[in-house]
Design a protein that fits this description.
The complex is a heterodimer of chains A (537) and B (242). Chain A has 537 residues and is mainly alpha-helical. Helices cover 48% and strands 1% of the residues of chain A. In chain A, a hairpin with a 5-residue loop joins strand 1 and strand 2. In chain A, helix 11 crosses helix 12, helix 12 packs across helix 13 and helix 17 crosses helix 18. Chain A is elongated. The relative contact order of chain A is 0.04. With 242 residues, chain B is mainly alpha-helical. Chain B contains 10 helices and 2 strands. A two-stranded antiparallel sheet of chain B has the order 1-2. The chains are: A mainly alpha (537), B mainly alpha (242). The interface between A and B is large, with 126 and 90 residues.
């Protein structure tokens, strides 16, 4: 019995040992840890050799739900020469769910579905590029149900990912520039064929010219924008200008770097330029670079077939928007030239005309006005200070009036005239004394009193002249007694105003009356005025 | 100050004013003034499109269209006014109802010489003038030519396709250059020349009121005054204002 009991215990112990021995190995634990944070560690317990034991076998396939076969073969050479293979990345760093064998179940509706399920693995390392591509026109097409829209692996491939940029500079490698159009051509072949014929495409693909743009230089990488959107259209001149205003690059080919400024200076470009800054999503029918020069089939301007130097070619472009344009019309566009005596000479000479006209004519006028203003001010200053006046050597037509003027009191600034004129211009006093043309502050209510000898003479009003005759004027003494004295009218203005406004009567009968002659007589008495004034004072 | 010699009877005034502009002429001035103001306001943002203040105004296609529409309407008004002015003037001149005072004569050149000598202190007084003085004739003819250029080039820019059927294409950019530069020339001219003479030198509102006072006539239009009245203007002109 005791033996039997001890044998049972031993059996249990062995059973336990066996169970312990069969417990999960530390190696698998390490693998699980590795899957969480992938690092390029070729010493993983599941190395690529493990995978390739099966997947290097050509013809390895699996059946998808639609009955299509998914090729599971990986070319070891191809992978080894890819950027990931060279850097020693392991299969399981992307294919994280297949570490165990047999692999967990993987199903896909079809081959495209399989790709769409697998490509998010790129996000693990390339999150920036992945997220930018989510803003691209491709991602938007995908979201709208277009399953063919490009995802990472469509351009970069899954197992043959190329090195495209220089690791140190971040610049595209020369062979990558030519590889890109071919990659895009997988879907956009018609455009690729056009591009090959263009001045840019032929230089890149034919001569490996590093100066010409490849697809992504205009369209961007990963976050490729919709080129049919308004924003792309409005921004396109700046896009072209990136290279075409670069003197280093353009000098090699003898191309003007003024193409943007001359475009912006003209009708079309100015508007596009404003919208680009102020409302970048606005639709515009104004042409941008590619409307005339072509989108992908951009030709040299001196190309004998397509070049815009050929007048018919340019006219054809004009007619897209200006259908009635005739042969003369294209030269309305300055062809990116800055007007000179040789190019667009008419514009050049019109410009020169104004360059001369503005300083000579307008400058001359400004000068005359400055002189007139200073002389006017000087005259007023002198009148205000009679004592300072000294005889001048100037020739004078009216020497007799000089003394009279000198004695004229203070001259008001011209502004003081304003209220009188604007208020009741027809009642403006007209003193016979003609000294200052602007009335003095004391002077305003001092109209020139013109009283005819008899009302009968006054009856026919003069032509073009309005005689305003208060009714009571018959009672007035003879004008000779009433040598007008500018300041006498102090209390009168209200009366004046009333009578004048009533008395205004348009006179259309053309007559020269005697009153005029009389007032002329009256004026002759004026030179005595200063004496009288002096006597009064 | 002075006292009135006879205070017994109330003072009687014989105040004369002289018709300077007809109602039609005053209305024409108003139309020109308003249309040019609108044209300038809507034209300047289009000219200075690279300036930020202009780009804020012209920020959307709708705004560009609207400002251009306003510009074209004002331009049409101005064009009609110009046509009226020309036809009206020609008809009145033929019927001898409009004296040709505004035309330039040899006398204007002599007046310009006198004026220059006056401004150089070589002469004591300004020359005497008729209905339109030297400065006013310059204003009229400068604006006449300016508006002519603006209207002409404006229509070239409005109908480029049609006009290039007969004219070379380079007329279009030349018209654009002339249109936008002439506008500035005109604006500067109005500000420095016209505003000075009608506001600063003296406030002359006769284009609105239609009339000049006798004093103004004697002072600034002595020849016309003498011609109309037969009196001597007796201007005491030392160039105080004119």
């Amino acid at each position: 019995m005791l033996l039997k009991k001890s044998l049972l215990l031993i059996g249990l112990g062995i059973f336990l040992l066996v169970i312990i021995a069969l417990a999960p190995s530390p190696a698998t634990a390490a693998l699980r840890e590795q899957q969480a944070t992938p690092t390029p560690n070729p010493k993983l317990s599941i190395g690529n050799d493990t995978c390739l034991e099966c997947h290097a076998e050509p013809g390895l396939t699996m059946k998808l739900e639609d009955g299509e076969e998914l090729n599971l073969y990986v070319d070891p050479q191809e992978y080894a020469s890819s950027i990931h293979g060279k850097s020693g990345y392991a299969c399981v760093q992307c294919h994280t769910s297949v570490g165990d064998y047999p692999h967990p179940l993987f199903t896909a509706a079809d081959r495209r579905d399989a790709s769409l399920k697998l490509y998010p693995a790129c996000y693990r390392c390339h999150s920036g590029e992945y997220e930018r591509s989510q803003d691209s026109v491709h991602a938007k097409a995908m979201a709208n149900g277009k399953r063919e829209a490009a995802v990472c692996t469509d351009c970069h491939t899954a197992h043959a990912v190329r090195q495209l940029t220089d690791a140190k500079t971040g610049q595209l490698l020369p062979d990558a520039r030519a590889w890109i159009p071919q990659t895009c051509a997988q879907c956009h072949n018609a455009i690729y064929q056009k591009y090959l014929t263009s001045v840019h495409g032929s230089a890149l693909m034919g001569e490996a010219n590093p100066d010409v743009p490849t697809c992504i230089d205009c369209h961007g990488v990963h976050n490729i924008a919709n080129p049919l959107a308004n924003a792309f259209r409005l921004n396109s001149p700046e896009l072209c200008a990136k290279c075409h205003t670069d003197p280093m690059r353009m000098a090699k080919y003898g191309i003007s770097t003024q193409v943007l400024t001359t475009y912006v200076a003209d009708f079309h470009g100015t508007t596009v330029n404003i919208f680009e800054k102020e409302s970048p999503d606005a639709p515009t029918n104004k042409p941008v670079c590619f409307d005339c020069h072509g989108v992908h089939d951009i030709a040299r301007t001196d190309d004998p077939q397509k070049g815009l130097i050929v007048k018919e070619n340019l006219l054809a472009r004009c007619k897209i928007c200006h259908p009635d344009a005739t042969a003369n019309f294209p030269t309305a566009w300055l062809s990116h030239y800055i007007p000179s005596a040789k190019q667009n000479s008419l514009v050049f000479y019109v410009g020169w005309f104004y360059k001369l006209l503005i300083p000579i004519v307008l400058g001359g006028m400004a000068l005359l006005i400055a002189m007139d203003f200073s002389r006017t001010m000087l005259n007023r200053y002198r009148k205000n200070r009679p004592a300072l006046i000294s005889p001048e050597g100037e020739e004078s037509n009216l020497p007799a009036e000089k003394t009279e003027l000198v004695t004229e009191p203070l001259v008001s600034p011209p502004v003081s005239e304003a209220p009188h004129l604007s208020h009741a211009p027809e009642t403006l006093p007209a003193p016979a004394v003609e000294g200052p043309s602007s009335p003095t502050p004391e002077a305003p209510p001092s109209p020139h009193v013109e009283v005819p000898n008899s009302p009968a003479q006054e009856a026919p009003p003069p032509s073009d002249i309005e005689a305003q005759l208060p009714s009571s004027e018959e009672a007035q003494p003879a004008p000779a007694d009433k040598v007008p004295l500018p300041s006498v009218e102090g209390p009168e203005p209200p009366n004046e105003e009333a009578t004048h406004t009533d008395a205004v009567a348009p006179a259309d009968t053309p007559v020269k009356n005697q009153a005029d002659a009389e007032s002329a007589d009256e004026i002759t008495t004026l030179p005595q005025l200063p004496d009288e004034e002096a006597a009064n004072e | 100050m002075r006292t009135q010699p006879s205070t017994a009877t109330p003072e009687i005034h014989h105040e004369r004013t002289f018709r300077r502009f007809t109602l039609s002429q005053r209305l024409e001035h108003t139309v020109i003034f308003l249309s040019i103001a609108v044209l300038l306001i809507t034209g300047l943002p289009q000219k200075y499109r690279s300036a930020s203040w202009s780009q804020e105004l012209l920020s959307t296609p709708e705004r560009v269209h609207r400002i251009q529409d306003i510009h074209h309407i004002a331009a049409t008004v101005l064009t009609l006014e110009v046509l009226f002015h020309l036809v009206n003037a020609i008809v009145l001149l033929i019927r001898r109802k409009l004296p040709g005072h505004i035309f330039l004569t040899l006398q204007d050149i002599r007046d310009a010489g006198k004026m220059l000598r006056y401004l150089l202190f070589l002469r004591k007084d300004k020359p005497s003038f008729g209905k339109y003085n030297f400065e006013q004739k310059v204003t009229y003819w400068f604006l006449f030519i300016s508006i002519g250029i603006m209207v002409g080039t404006g229509f070239i820019l409005l109908f480029p396709v049609t006009l290039t059927r007969w004219l070379p294409g380079s007329v279009i950019p030349a018209a654009k250059m002339a249109h936008s530069t002439e506008a500035i020339v005109t604006a500067i001219f109005v500000v420095i020349w016209h505003f000075y003479h009608v506001h600063i030198e003296r406030l002359n509102l006769s284009i609105f009121t239609g009339r000049l006072s006798e004093q103004e006539m004697r002072t600034y239009h002595a020849d016309e005054f003498e011609h109309l009245t037969g009196e001597k203007a007796n201007r005491a002109e030392t160039g105080g204002n004119s």
